[in-house]
Design a protein that fits this description.
Elements (H helix, E strand, L loop, with lengths): L20 H11 L4 H5 L5 E4 L14 E16 L9 E9 L4 E7 L4 H6 L5 E11 L2 E5 L2 E4 L5 H9 L1 E4 L8 H11 L12 H6 L5 H9 L4 H32 L12 H8 L6 H14 L6 E6 L5 H14 L3 E5 L3 H15 L16 E5 L5 H13 L2 E6 L13 E7 L6 H8 L7 E6 L5 H7 L4 E5 L9 E7 L4 H16 L3 E5 L10 H6 L15 H10 L7 E4 L5 H12 L5 E4 L12 E6 L7 H8 L9 E7 L6 H11 L3 H11 L2 H8 L16 H17 L7 H10 L2 H9 L1
Parallel strand pairs: 4-6, 9-14, 9-15, 10-12, 10-13, 11-12, 13-14, 16-21, 17-19, 17-20, 18-19, 20-21
Antiparallel strand pairs: 1-8, 2-3, 2-5, 3-4, 5-6, 5-7
Helix pairs in contact: 7-8, 8-24, 8-25, 10-11, 15-24
Amino acid sequence: MDLVPALEEPLKQPLKSVLGPATAKVMAEHLGLRTVGDLLHHYPRRYEERGQLTHLADLPMDEHVTVVAQVADARLHTFASAKAPRGKGQRLEVTITDGSGRLQLVFFGNGVHKPHKELLPGTRAMFAGKVSVFNRRLQLAHPAYELLRGDSEEAVETWAGALIPIYPATAKLESWKIGKAVQTVLPSAQEALDPLPPALREGRGLLPLPEALLKIHRPHTKADIADARARLKWDEAFVLQVALARRRHADTLLPAVPRVPGPDGILAAFDDRLPFTLTEGQQKVSREIFADLATAHPMHRLLQGEVGSGKTMVALRAMLAVVDAGGQAAMLAPTEVLAQQHHRSVTEMMGELAEGGMLGGAEHATKVVLLTGSMGLAARRQALLDLATGEAGIVIGTHALIEDKVQFHDLGLVVVDEQHRFGVEQRDALRGKGKQPPHLLVMTATPIPRTVAMTVFGDLETSVLDQLPAGRSPIASHVVPAADKPHFLARAWERVREEVAAGHQAYVVCPRIGDEEDDPKKAGKKKDPEGEADKRPPLAVLEVADQLSRGPLQGLKVEVLHGRMHPDDKDAVMRRFAAGETDVLVATTVIEVGVNVPNATAMVIMDADRFGVSQLHQLRGRVGRGSAPGLCLLVTEMPEASPARQRLAAVASTLDGFELSRIDLEQRREGDVLGQAQSGARSSLRVLAVIEDEEVIAEARQEAAAVVAADPELERLPGLRTALDALLDEEREQYLEKG
């Protein structure tokens, strides 16, 4: 949206600069603003009011005021200070009066020269600033002022009521300098090409783009700001949704093989064997997926479901439907531990249906193979052969599946688990393994608010599983304030011992590993104004495990798990824990995704304030997976009133992941969310707030779909095409291309 052709003029050029060369250089290096268009789309963060005209007799403290008064007296004093030790410091004191009272103004240092020349006794002027007290007298330090030379009362009112834009600035470039630069280029706003189709703009009563740019940078009233923001939000939402709608439209043009399961094939046999009934949610989502699989263009669906809501069951039935229809299905997991676990649970759920080609295999059986990087050569060779011949209908693996050597007989469906851990390129490489583009199902246990799903994953249709299957136990969560109430922490370790005594197991999660590569000095550097706890480095797995083994959990079998261990060692630790040989597992967040140990009932999260809301919710989902209730203790040293404690209280108060993801998003800026999801590209959102502007995004999505359906190449909308090109710089274009 920044780079409309008339606004492509660089701020800094070899021969002439739109701005001074030094200013242009700082703007480019520190704010990423390189063209006139960039600068016009650098919107004010907020607006200061000079304050309504105030009589000197009734000045409020600590508020911005504007007064009209006459200079009664002006004196220049010199003084010695640390900066000016030889008595060269200068202070200008000006006394003003408006008949109702008197007020002192004070200017220091180099700031004294201009007012010393202009504010002579008898001069009438308007002064604006913040009222403070010095030596028990009211004063304004360094006020802004405007001399009044026989001006009308109307001009006085206008100046006092003006809204002063405050821009996102840097130490090298103050807001008012950015404001001046914007005023220099503001006339170019008239040439801005409007990306919104005229019918849409008029139908919704939105300002034309040039007028919106003018009003956001130079508003006369608060209504001007509201109108401008409403218009600019629409631009951002609409252009992004058009990009996603074009992506979806292009997908509908791709060919795919429809996959319709037979009435009495492997899927029917599997359903007959199920010892329980699918939840309504699972049945509904399965119907959506089967309808997509039956079409002649590739499915692109996002399956969201809380931890334990039965996503794997839904994905397995989709894979079996494809096998039924003569194709193969691949499931891609982010780690070897998770791939092995999926393989185990899928073969267990399928029983003899997973023993295709073997003695004792059922009539409709197929082979389910595992493919990971650390497999032995013979096993790997056999797995590759089974895939190439079509003997194996289902393969589960890590990114080893993407390697060139892996050939499929007829790949019909790709299921990606925990999408946010996979690069777009990896998904794309796997999709390229089919003779025609395979259908794609992306699963995530991270609840994503509807608007984020529409914005970040807008090229995917969304299905949500929001019921937990019968038999899942509730999880009680409590905040343990270790600094205020140390006895609460002692009780937490007693609770862990009680769970172990009852035959269960526990996790203890720490933010850091604690080996020499994991430097606490670096970890401790991030200062956070929230509290004293930030003065020490985050707690580490190796230290905590050692302290627990020798202290409160002495006599229990304690093991550690973290990301820098050798894969074989990690697997061995996980196997021992899953088999119940270990009582307590002290780990980093490697356990966050997909670790399934139904016997683990308690989790203690150390320095819980150092984790995000959604991450805490994910971690908590590792307990209460069996018939016994789960317990999650959030240990923190943060003071009670801090935002960190409020965040933890929110996590403890609800098990609704969607509610928590909204809280999480409100606390972080959406730009972070979108920035990560859009392959690190600069977030395009400046005024659009993903949570607050849910209606705008939903409406923009509908409008975008209609526009793209009528004119996929946007031939009749050159302004929109240009805005799209600016949004989709190369990096983004690739991101959306790869979907």
